[in-house]
Amino acid sequence: MTKTTLLTRALLAVRNIQRGLATVTDQSFANTSPPTAPYALSVSSKPLPAALKLKTGDVFHGQSFGAQTPISGEAVFTTSLVGYPESMTDPSYRGQILVFTQPLIGNYGVPGLFKDQYGLLKYFESDRVQCQGIVVGDYSARYSHWNAVESLSSWCDRHGVPGISGVDTRAIVHLLRNRGSTLAKLVTGDDAKNENFDKIPYDDPNKRNLVAEVSTKTPVSYNPFGDVKIGVIDCGVKYNILRCLVKRGAAVTILPHDFDFNKVSHEFDGLFISNGPGNPNMVTETVRNLRTALSDYDRPIFGICMGNLLLGLAAGLNVFFFFFFFPNPVFVLFLILRFGNRGHNVPAVSEDGRGVITSQNHGYALDDSVMPQGWVKYYVNANDGTNEGIRHSVLPRWSVQFHPEAKGGPQDTEPLFDEFLDRVRADKLKRVGTPLFIPESPVVTPTQYA
Q1: Is 145 considered catalytic here?
Q2: Annotated catalytic, 285?
Q3: Phi, psi at residue 33, to the nearest 5°?
Q4: What keyword terms does UniProt attach to this protein (predicted)?
Q5: At what angle do helices 284-296 and 306-315 cross, to 10 degrees?
Q6: Chain centre distance of CA 180
Q7: pTM score > 0.70 for this model?
Q8: What is the pLDDT of residue 182?
Q9: What is the 3-state secondary structure (H, E, C) of the chain?
Q10: Which tens digit of pLDDT belongs to each residue from 93-118?
Q11: Beta bridge partners of 15
């Protein structure tokens, strides 16, 4: 036997040993076929065509899923890697066509309408899909997750939201990055084949008061027996913001965005201004009420996202829009970011130099080049230098542009809720002292134990 033959046999023996280590011994399906997953039954083998047209003139063809209805809105992109159910139900995406940079979407389906101990939906940020439509590179029709109850396509179909897949999302994102956020149309079926986009006009959601569309119409309360009472000015509040407040012991009352809360502000130990969609210049009544609160209300005020913009407007700052379109992007290299900040990985730097990774979703920013008297910059975006928060130098009033309550993550800045409620409790302690509650002892007679 030659040395070559011995070496060959030795290598085969090693290979067989390795194979043996990897052998699956479970033979539960040896004599029967494995069960068919229920979600596989609804997978369509012949998806309809779909087409996306940006107002820049660029057209992208792909396959349709979700609702078969034409829509128009503002095309924006998010760099979030997970959490598409949370993003799509975020009221801040109202009126927008959401482009996912994460290439695979839909692989873990959509969870059910389960509620937590506070009565809030566990896996969604509102009770409906808020975005106009979605654009993905690769839609996974077959999903797999322990708490999924339906596919992304069927969920979108029920909510009247169309989706397009099989398009080059990298090319779309490059267009949005270089030329700025733009309006877009999404059509399906024969209209997509023939590039018939004339059935619907371009709809600019920033010309509407989107906050009025998503804000509650009547006050709603959660955790009524909390030790401090927080009035939430609802500009499109996310459920996880409410959860972050009530799980820390606060009693929360959600108020309509245009309600004059100054009439009842004395009933609250603190005010919170929520996130929300669209143009802050459209939310004039809320800004007017906040101006009154800044002069009359001496208790803590905290805001997030749209809350940062509205508090800034009430304090005397201006806002600018990230919408810029230039045929030649070379001329805008040194201008501000043109496509907003949306995603779960945006760095921000606090006034003391501490860096944090944040979740963001906004297309407007405060112009903090000149700060009003008494106000200072709180956070700054590490990528583009835009404002990420303001605070009063003396009074307990502050806000951030990012989302400390982010789902799914990051959680670097969630302690801002602790800071807010700590200051609310400290302020209440100064005002009312320390009330001592002693439960009434039952009167016990000897006959009860006879």
Answers
A1: no
A2: no
A3: -80, 145
A4: ATP-binding, Glutamine amidotransferase, Ligase, Membrane, Nucleotide-binding, Transmembrane, Transmembrane helix
A5: 60
A6: 21
A7: yes
A8: 92
A9: CCHHHHHHHHHHHHHHHHHHHHCCCCCCCCCCCCCCCHHHHHCCCCCCEEEEEECCCCEEEEEEEECCCCEEEEEEEECCCCCHHHHHCCHHHCCEEEEECCCEECCCCEECCCECCCCCECCCCCCCCCCCEEECCEECCCCCCCCEEECHHHHHHHCCCEEEECCCHHHHHHHHHHHCCEEEEEEECHHHHCCCCCCCCCCCHHHCCHHHHHCCCCCEEECCCCCEEEEEEECCCCHHHHHHHHCCCEEEEEEECCCCHHHCHHHCCEEEECCCCCCHHHCHHHHHHHHHHHHHCCCCEEEECHHHHHHHHHHCCEEEECCCCCCCHHHHCCCCCCCCEEEEEEEEEECCCCEEEEEEEECEEEECCCCCCCEEEEEEECCCCCEEEEEECCCCEEEECCECCCCCCCCCCCHHHHHHHHHHHHHHHHHHCCCCCCCCCCCCCHHHHC
A10: 999 999 999 999 999 999 999 999 99
A11: none
Q: For residue 2, is pLDDT > 60?
A: no
Question: Among this protein's residues, is 305 annotated catalytic?
Answer: yes
Amino acid at 81: L
